[in-house]
Amino acid sequence: MTVTAYSFTRLSLRIATSALAETVTAWYRANARDLPWRQPGATPWGVLVSEVMLQQTQVSRVEPAWRRWMERWPTPADLAADPPGEAIRAWDRLGYPRRALRLHACAGAIVERHDGEVPDDVDALLALPGIGMYTARAVAAFAFRQRHPVVDTNVRRVVARVVEGAADGGAATTPADLRAVEVLLPVDHEAAATASVAFMELGAVVCTARTPRCDDCPLTAVCAWRLAGSPPSAAPSRRIQRYHGTDRYVRGLIMAVLRAADDPVARDRLDAVWPDAEQRERALGGLLADGLVRERAGTFTLPG
DNA sequence: AATGCGTGGCA
DNA sequence: TTGCCAAGCAT
């Protein structure tokens, strides 16, 4: 291939991919859900809190919890000033309560390292408790309007279908995923940030995992998966872990008791949640090791 | 890199 | 009803 032809191909690619982002952004402007952390007045802290709550938890369940949380702890310093157990209690039934513990630790780290202000660069965000590759980039893009590939399960699925013609994306984000998304982003930072949330929104409400609404999709005419006849997933479905009766389930039972309690809880009240003593001990031991539960004189509480 | 980690909604 | 899946992270 000559240099000229190569350059031409690259240019065409750039034009095609840029049109993709523009199309999805236009769709987003007309169809975006009105979520409180997307409001102009939302603070970087509010965006960070929303992203942590949204880790593996649906928007419909997060929204009321987020409103209550932000009213009670409008800044990182407010949260850091309260005991971690209060964060766990306020987390209520969002699931994965270690996220609440880490969010509390995150608030403390922001106060200590960053003078109470959410940092605006990806590396500083990545160094905070509970903030990983996805959340760091999401905060940098959505709160600070920077240009970063923001790749979650929705974006992996959209790119897999539209660009690669596959039924679904990989289980976890790889460096290759970041590069694949980076080339789709507009050069302008503000436009890139909006395109990022637009790709996510498309995956969340149209290009869904089980029953995609292709008739409502702005990319249906150019979607490689659609054009290939929407072939089924090639990969074996990942093993789904059952829930009822697992250690995780028993941990949930114990945490529900402790969240509801105003005073230290005696062991026999925890023993009542589940008949299998061995499994109970394993679950309680895990919670103690995780710092989600404290023991004092044979009684149990959330961490003070 | 595979695994453990809550809870609920929906088809 | 039951199984899948949901804006992941840490180890």
3D architecture notes:
The chain has three domains: 97 residues, Endonuclease Iii, domain 2; 100 residues, Endonuclease III, domain 1, CATH 1.10.340; 55 residues, Orthogonal Bundle (Arc Repressor Mutant, subunit A). By secondary structure, the chain is an all-alpha fold. It has 15 helices and three strands. A hairpin with a 2-residue loop joins strand 2 and strand 3. The protein binds a DNA duplex (11 and 11 nucleotides) through helix 2, helix 3, helix 6, helix 8 and helix 9.
How is the topology of this model organized?
Layout: H1 3-31, H2 44-53, H3 59-72, H4 76-80, H5 84-91, H6 98-114, H7 122-126, H8 133-142, H9 153-164, H10 175-182, H11 189-205, H12 224-227, H13 247-260, E1 265-266, H14 267-271, H15 277-290, E2 294-296, E3 299-301
Antiparallel strand pairs: 1-3, 2-3
Helix pairs in contact: 1-11, 2-3, 2-8, 5-6, 9-11, 13-15
The chain binds a DNA duplex (11 and 11 nucleotides) through residues 50-62, 93-99, 102, 130-135, 138, 150, 152-155, 172-173, 200, 203-204, 208-211, 237, 240-243, 246-249, 251-252, 255, 286, 290.
